[in-house]
Amino acid sequence: MHSFKTISTAVAASLFALVACGGADPVSGTWNQPNGTIAIPIALGGGSLGDNATLVFNDSVSPPTFDLTMDLSYTGLTDTLEVHGTYTDSGGALTLDFTGFVISTGSGDTTDVASDGSQCLTMTPLAGATVCFATPQTDTYQIANDTLTIGINNDIAGAPASTTTLTLTRK
Amino acid sequence: MTVNRRDFIKTVAAGSAVAVIGCSPSAAEAVDDAGCPVPTTPVAVPDLPYPSPAYFQQVASDLTAAGIGTPQVFIDMDRLDANIAEIVSGVQPGRYRIVEKSLPSLDLLSYVQQKSGSQKFMVLHLPFLTGVLATFPNADVLIGKSQLTDAIGSFFATQPQGNWAAIAKQVTFIADNLTRLNELVTLAGQLGITLKLAIELDVGLHRSGLTDPSQLAPMLTVFAGATVVQFAGFLGYDGHVPFAPGGSLAAVQTAWTAATAVYQSYVDILDSQFPSLVTSDLVFNSGSSSTYPMYTSGPVNDVAAGGGVLRPGDYPNYVIAALQPAIFIAAPVFKVFPQPQLPFFTPAQCATIFAGLQGLTVYGSGWPAFFTFPAGIQGAPFTFDPTDFSQVPNQGLVTAPASTTINPGDWIFYHPRQSDALFQFQQIMQVRGGRLQTTTMAAYPRRY
Q: Domains of chain A by range and CATH?
């Protein structure tokens, strides 16, 4: 059920995109998840962070770039994570190459590159929790009905590597 | 019924009326069957192993010989030594935390530290923390209550910035709820340091701390991923336990068992849900000078006691009978009145009120304390409220049995209800071997 109409729509959308945009990457554009949550690893006690995420893919430049912004909150603590990089879309999977963070003004956040090359951000207002993104990393994605679902691998506060799944709507 | 200031005024006014029209009761004061005001009943001196009359007579003689003439607080050092040894033995090695607030003198704290061997301190007043850290550079300090975040920020502001990180490693502050924890997270971020924090638990006193175990996990989650705050353990003060209804050892033990069960319920959550936070150096603090011997089992691994080494008068005696009173206040007598008078009362009424008594005005007098020597000293009826109303340490009228031989310049002795009475004195005298010593201790160099 879900599939036929959804796939049809997706195919139609893709055809439209090909006609209208001359082969633009299907993920290109701005995607938003305004009231999402991110699971906190069980090793850290479980629960979830509030998350207002915006993911922007720009394929008008070479190499194509992405910017991921997440306004995170946990029981009164808040901080913004903004990370950017370049990407390659191999159709159903994105290879993300994280290149750096934008530090929120006055946050006291700090960045670091881990020994394995991961890009890390210590989020001081969020009790100094550190989030690291392995780079490059390849993540599968799906687009259906203008909804992008993608799981991004990350490491939160040293807990075993986990995946932050974002479900974003095209803006 | 107690007599407060308003009642006293009404009472003496009624007394005045008695002279003219007989006793006519007005509302609310204590009256006898004839409607005449009656004094409140003095509080009984606790049944504790006080020194002998000869001891007080000798100290009084030494004080007189010293030519001092003003009220003095003194510590019996032999009794202090015995009390320290008793507490150290009672809490078991390595678990004794010296409570600073009840021993407000760096000299006294140093003495207790050396005799006990403990480097663990509980500090209740941040203004004193600087002095404690300077005097005890190896101190492991646990702040004994949740402080306002502004106060913690202000404390750090008074310290050289280069010392902040070291202080933060040495001192454990308290978070009593998630909001406070968040504030401290923000403060730590602003200071650029990692704050060690213990979580305060309400184990029955209902004064502060988490009130339900469900409140714990969100706080521990903050710690689990944190770098600006470090989880250091729990603080769960048991101040209610020795006052359990029933007034018996069994009641106290029941209250302790209940408090310990509450404490354990939080530790269980920590152990089961946050194993990454469990380290060998976590502090699980509780206890007091009135309960320290009870912590031979259960999760508590850090026992606080302060005033117990001086054994003031208000500590219930169910489990600390081994502690001896070691702190006293001596106050000189100004005047002696064979037939004391009260304002607004007639001489005849006063003769009734003071039947069998003589009156003494003494220097000070207004301390929360029990009269210990000479025997039979009491606050004068209507002027000295046994509930410690109007305890101004200026001068006061007390009574002694008419048979007591006492003269101006002699001394009367008090046993303070709390050792915090030290806070009112700049100099702490010492008695050893039953004799006043020439060495003294200095009170804290600053007040609040």
A: 26-170 (2.40.128)
